[in-house]
Amino acid sequence: MATTEWSALLFEATATTSVAILLVFLLRAPLRRGFGAGAVHALWALVPAAALAPFLPAAPALPGEALLAPVGVGLDATLAPVRRGGAGYGWLPAAWAAGALALLLLQALRQWRFRRSAGPLCARGDGSYAAAVDGPAVLGLLRPRIVVPHDFDRRFTATERALVLAHERVHVQRGDVPATALATLLQCLFWFNPLVHLALARFRRDQELACDAAVVARHPDARRDYARAMLNAQLAAPGLPVGCTWQSGHPLKERIMQLKHPLPGRLRRRSGTVVALSLAVAAGLAFAGTPHTDDIPVADPETSYASLIRPVYPRAAIDAKMSGTVVMRVLVGTDGLPKQVEIERSDAGELLEASSIAAVNQWQFNPAEKDGEPVEQWVRVPINFSLDEPAADDDAPNALDTTPLRDDGRS
Question: Is the pTM above the cut of 0.70?
């Protein structure tokens, strides 16, 4: 994949992720009031869906868009390099990768230090494990285990212990440890975006609130004991990069205040989860990239070539042995001239992309017609640059090929 395409995908993924985070921030409060904390926790699925959307295979071309025959460019179409305006963003992928790797290593170090400080895990009769931790937690990505401090039996009453363990079991049942791993991975990938760091803290808060709500729904008469259990564990260590601790850096006051509010009914809670997940799916589809054309067969489009100048093969690209395909997307006006030219996909590099843009802007088409009148139409043109085979005149049907100038200035 060309550097420019990586840069474009990075920009697009950053934009879609930021919009998704802002939508979650906007909807958190009304969703919690209407459907409970569980719906807000489910809403966070919108963020990874938006982050992944630009990288997913797109749908086929939309109706009304034509795919013209490929244009071949070989070594017989050489010219001095076409310079592309602007400084370029070739450095972006390397800088992004360096930052992501640095933060990933830092989080791995934090995880390792916490696990080492916890010491050996000693099995208890209630299914949990005693360890040198400040408060209850769930450790382990592949095999989540509930761990409690060595003084768990002294610090908490029997009722409080049952509620604490119920809270941690909800984390395990819902797969919250893999969810925190995914959230931490997104934080590393988008390390430069302050919204992602803020979202991670809010996500961990909503995760704990959702667990609290699930426990209270199962034990509605134990709110006071549950609040006391929170107070007894208020000095617990901050949350792990991958794991769930009793506190998780969550403001204690907000959790206790939630216990005073009546919970929505089961139907409303489930409806809220469905609404939140539906929003996540809809956002992922909305944020998906522009349709691709790789597998679309060449048909007889309404728009056709009138005359074209084959893109030049820049000398610097030949020397660097650059080749590949640039898929151009062109809005053909009613006069047959390009009104808008853009690169849809490319694996050919910046020099060949710039050469393609320069050539397509000089092309002429036979515009599509409707009711006998010319109309605008989007078309896609794959331009194949090859160092092995020269361009053939029959690569582009309906084309009147105008040979470009060569390096020596002869036509």
Answer: no
